[in-house]
């Protein structure tokens, strides 16, 4: 057996340590992939159960189910009817939450999943102004409801339009904050909304909401109902996913949304408790009043 020099022994030891470390990393990666797979499966199962419960619950009309679930989240005054049926959200909230979903969908389709920069200042100021306009319109509407003289006659058209302005701003801000907070591969120089051409498309898509509503086409009731319903549930859930992810140590660590399966599954619980708890509380309070 040939004698090895000290340098050869040290080098051999280094190679063995490196091989062991690589093996441990491979094992850790396999375990993590297995855990991620289990969490993704669990997330899909919970989502499937909740969706099936919503759509297939016997004995209760689907229209009333949608109304009841969000009863604690929105005022459900100044209601909108399409084809003779009341939408589950009131006018202003239809604007806010439908536009939130439409705007997020457009930005995602345009490849802004990793964008980490807010829009140019002129667009940001415009979105802030639109949010302030909705607040003013809300106080004006409240004054009329309380029997006081409003600054101008309130209307559901204004409530929807000002709600759209607010919902668009929330969607743009949320996507930028979400990416900055959680993505390792965030593109900090990419703007969520690049320019006024982008804004023009977003505004056009969102303006289709009141156009379809006031066309009063009966077959559009369910698309409008689910758009607003899914919009408000998605916004509440997305905020809980963000908070759960930060609490569980996912700060600037993900490269794909699939890696959020664990906090996304956990976030179902506070979302259900919040939405369900507020709905039950409001129904109880209304029962006490009448």
Task: Explain what you see.
It is elongated and about 100 Å long. The chain has nine helices and four strands. With 290 residues, it is mainly alpha-helical. The protein has helices at 6-56, 62-69, 91-109, 121-145, 156-182, 196-215, 221-247, 261-266, 268-289; strands at residues 79-82, 85-90, 115-117, 187-191.
List its salient traits:
290 residues; mainly alpha; single chain; 9 helices; 71% helix; two-stranded parallel sheet
- One letter per element, helices H and strands E, the order comes to HHEEHEHHEHHHH
Helix residue percentage: over 70%
Provide a count of the helices: 9
Radius of gyration: 25 Å
Could you give the count of β-strands?
Answer: 4
Oligomer: single chain
Average pLDDT, to the nearest integer?
Answer: 92
Number of domains: 2
Q: Which structural category do the helix and sheet elements fall into?
A: mainly alpha
Low-confidence spans: pLDDT under 50, at least 5 residues? none
State which percent range the strand residues make up: 5-15%
The largest sheet, given as strand count, sense and whether it forms a barrel, is: 2 strands, antiparallel
Outline: elongated
End-to-end Cα distance: 97 Å
Record the strand order, biggest sheet.
Answer: 1-2
SSE topology:
Elements: H1 6-56, H2 62-69, E1 79-82, E2 85-90, H3 91-109, E3 115-117, H4 121-145, H5 156-182, E4 187-191, H6 196-215, H7 221-247, H8 261-266, H9 268-289
Parallel strand pairs: 3-4
Antiparallel strand pairs: 1-2
């Amino acid at each position: 057996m040939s004698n090895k020099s000290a340098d050869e022994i040290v080098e051999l030891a280094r190679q063995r340590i490196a091989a062991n470390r690589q093996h441990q990393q491979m094992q850790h990666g396999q375990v993590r992939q297995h855990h991620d797979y289990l969490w993704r499966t669990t997330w899909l199962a919970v989502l499937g159960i909740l969706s099936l419960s919503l759509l297939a619950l016997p004995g209760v009309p689907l229209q009333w189910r949608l109304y009841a679930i969000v009863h604690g989240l929105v005022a459900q005054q100044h209601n909108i009817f399409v084809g003779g049926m009341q939408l589950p959200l009131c006018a202003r909230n239809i604007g806010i939450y439908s536009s939130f979903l439409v705007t997020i969908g457009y930005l995602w389709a345009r490849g802004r999943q990793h964008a980490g920069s807010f829009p140019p200042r002129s667009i940001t100021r415009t979105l802030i102004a639109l949010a302030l306009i909705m607040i003013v319109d809300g106080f004006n509407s409240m004054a009329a409801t309380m029997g006081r003289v409003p600054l101008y006659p309130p209307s559901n058209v204004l409530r929807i339009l000002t709600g759209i302005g607010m919902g668009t701003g929330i969607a743009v801000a949320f996507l930028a904050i979400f990416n900055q907070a959680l993505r390792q591969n965030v593109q900090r120089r990419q703007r969520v909304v690049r320019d006024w051409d982008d804004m023009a498309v977003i505004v056009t898509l969102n303006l289709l909401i009141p156009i379809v509503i006031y066309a009063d086409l009966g077959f559009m009731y369910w698309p409008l109902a689910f758009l607003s319903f899914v919009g408000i549930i998605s916004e509440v859930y997305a905020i809980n996913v963000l908070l759960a992810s930060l609490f569980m140590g996912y700060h600037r660590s993900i490269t794909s949304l699939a890696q959020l399966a664990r906090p996304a599954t956990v976030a179902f619980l506070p979302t259900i408790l919040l939405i369900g708890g507020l709905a039950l509380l409001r129904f109880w309070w209304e029962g006490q009043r009448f």
